[in-house]
Amino acid sequence: MHSDFLENCPVFFNERPNAIRFHTRIIELIQQTVETLLIKPDLSLEKFKINRATNSICKSHNQKGRNYMKYILILAMIAPMISGQAYTQTEQKGQSEKTKQMEKITPKGYTTFKVSDNVTMYKVTFNKKGRGQEAEGRREFCFVSSARDRRELGFKSPTKISDLVDCNWCGSEAQTILLPSALCLLPSAFFTNQYKMNVAGHLFIPKNLDQSKKHSAIIVGHPMGAVKEQSANVYAANMAERGFVTLSVDLSFWGESEGEPRNVVAPDIYSEDFSAAVDFLSTRPFVDKNRIGIIGVCGSGSFVISAAKIDPRMKAIATVSMYDMGAASRNALNHSLTLEQRKKIQEEAAKQRYVEFTDGETKYTGGTVHKLDENTDPIQREFYDFYRTPRGEYTPKGGSPELTTHPTLSSNVKFMNFYPFNDIETISPRPMLFITGDKAHSREFSEDAYKRAAKPKELYIVPNAGHVDLYDRVELIPFDKLTSFFTEHLK
User: Fold this and answer.
1) pLDDT for res 14
2) How many CB atoms lie within 10 A of CB 210?
3) Which residues face 199 on adjacent strands?
4) Contacts of 245 (CB under 8 A, 6+ apart)
5) Which position has the higher pLDDT, 175 or 242?
6) Among candidates 457, 403, 394, 401, which has minimal Cα distance to 425?
7) How far apart are the C-alpha atoms of 288 and 357, rounded to whole Å?
8) Tens digit of each residue's pLDDT (9 = 90 or more) over 185-226
9) pLDDT for res 32
10) What are the Cα distances from residue 241, in Å, to 118, 205, 287, 304?
11) Does 140 or 25 have the greater pLDDT score?
12) Which letter does DSSP use for residue 440 in this model?
């Protein structure tokens, strides 16, 4: 490459010492891969000077006449492999730094219950400034290029990244090494799903946990229409007190996670969020990626089953007060919805799509009522006692109390195409635990799932417990049963 370029090639690393090691590893990978192709360019590490004060790497050899285009073509071929391997190496080497970047928080303001003093709570979230803005902790480096750069191979110095390529999440002042492809690696404390949507969560770590060792971990999903602060944090905090690393998450379109419009129903994306949570936990230095379990409360019970069917990294699956959101939407409780009624709902949702397509008002449906009267049915009263009282009421920042729990009308019918229990038997031999109350109106869903699942499986009935009781009534929630289940199966 042109020596005058490489002698002035500062690389943006967010001012982190480990970034130098990171880039050194890239050079090693380039050399190893090119040598495999029996081409031995002069890229030895001793030919580079590392200036830690400026975080720059400059090539100092004086060899002239190197075949520049040959290098460009080689790097173009190997760039995807380099990026994947380099990302893995950086994740392993820089985990402690990234863990420190997560915000340590107190339970007040983030939970509706008391969290044990033996548990430390962290906020796992994302930068909200948006695309192209400074996002601390989000990147280690970027490789970029543009058609102009490929034409003008001899430019003298790096320019702003915005002048090179439109690159998601990269700061406008970032400087790069030129490659003939656009790559952006974004290791960070928050995590994204495969749809590049940011997923927010709360990470709970026992205070006495030896973070130099690997531990089992559990992901917890909240009820449909709720957020992580409601019920999911109850389970995450209590299981952390029992020695597990736990992560409660906001499903996409809800809470602090990304997704527009808000309150959209997207069961496939919900299920993907749990796989993304496995991605995140698996790269924590104190988590054993082969010992990750999952708990789904209410609607999340069906989402975690859907996720576990195709994600074998979820080693043990538990559901509590599960709703099969597909069956509940198609048939209602006890199969009380007729086909004609179902079609009427579908027609109403289809008409609403026209309204929203022409920038009309978004309508919401379902969820929990905001007032009680003599006609309010017992199930709605049960939900009201949690979602509309200090017991469990929580409005996410930027949200409205009037919209909490209510999905959008036009998207809610997507549940009618959701069949989480189909092929549930394929989860075997991974164990499944279905917990429900003996008085729960949703008991039919846990029993149906248990009947369809293959061994090992267990249906655990909690005496004197209704559906919503198992959201937060810690005296009824069988934490000892959950502890023994995950202890046994996350060995």
Assistant:
1) 32
2) 9
3) 191
4) 203, 204, 205, 206, 209, 215, 216, 217, 218, 281, 284, 286, 287
5) 242
6) 457
7) 46
8) 222 236 899 999 999 999 999 989 999 999 999 999 999 999
9) 55
10) 6, 8, 16, 23
11) 25
12) -
* Helices 300-310 and 443-452, packing angle to 10 deg: 20
Dihedral pair phi/psi, residue 76, rounded to 5°: -60, -40
Give kind and range of the element (H or E) at residue 216.
strand 215-221
Quote the Cα angle for 446-275-110, to 5°. 80
Question: Directed axis angle between helix 232-241 and helix 479-489, to 10°?
Answer: 60
Using pLDDT thresholds of 50, 70 and 90, give the confidence band for residue 124.
confident
CATH code for the part of the protein at 190-330+416-489: 3.40.50.1820
The answer to whether 394 touches 223, Cβ cutoff 8 Å, is: no
18 Cβ contact partners less than 8 Å away, ≥ 6 residues apart:
90, 93, 94, 97
CB neighbour class for 421 (10 Å; exposed up to 12, middle 13-18, buried from 19): buried
0.85 cut: is pTM over it? no
In whole angstroms, what is the distance from residue 486 CA to residue 458 CA? Answer: 13
Domain residue extents for the chain: 3-100+129-185, 190-330+416-489
Question: Per-residue pLDDT tens for 233-278?
Answer: 999 999 999 999 999 999 999 999 999 999 999 999 999 999 999 9
Q: How many CB atoms lie within 10 A of CB 173?
A: 10
Q: What is the DSSP code string of 346-405?
A: HHHHHHHHHHHHTT----B-SS--SS--TT--HHHHHHHHHHTSTTT----TT--TTTTT
DSSP state of 477: S
Structure-token pair, residue 276:
């993304």
What are the counts of helices (DSSP H) followed by strands (DSSP E) for the chain? Answer: 16, 16
Distance CA 456, CA 1 (A): 60
Q: What is the structure's pLDDT at 481? A: 98
- Answer whether 245's CB lies under 8 Å from 218's CB: yes
What is the pLDDT at residue 460?
98
421-432 confidence digits (pLDDT tens): 999 999 999 999
Any idea which of 56-70, 99-113, 455-469, 476-490 has the lowest mean pLDDT?
A: 56-70
d(CA 488, CA 316) in angstroms, rounded, equals 10
Quote the pLDDT of residue 105: 77
SS3 317: strand
- Report the distance separating Cα 17 and Cα 347, nearest Å: 59
CB 228 within 8 A of CB 250: yes
Tell me what the mean pLDDT of segment 123-145 comes to.
37
The closest alpha carbon to 54, from 11, 3, 90, belongs to 11
CA distance 48 to 177: 14
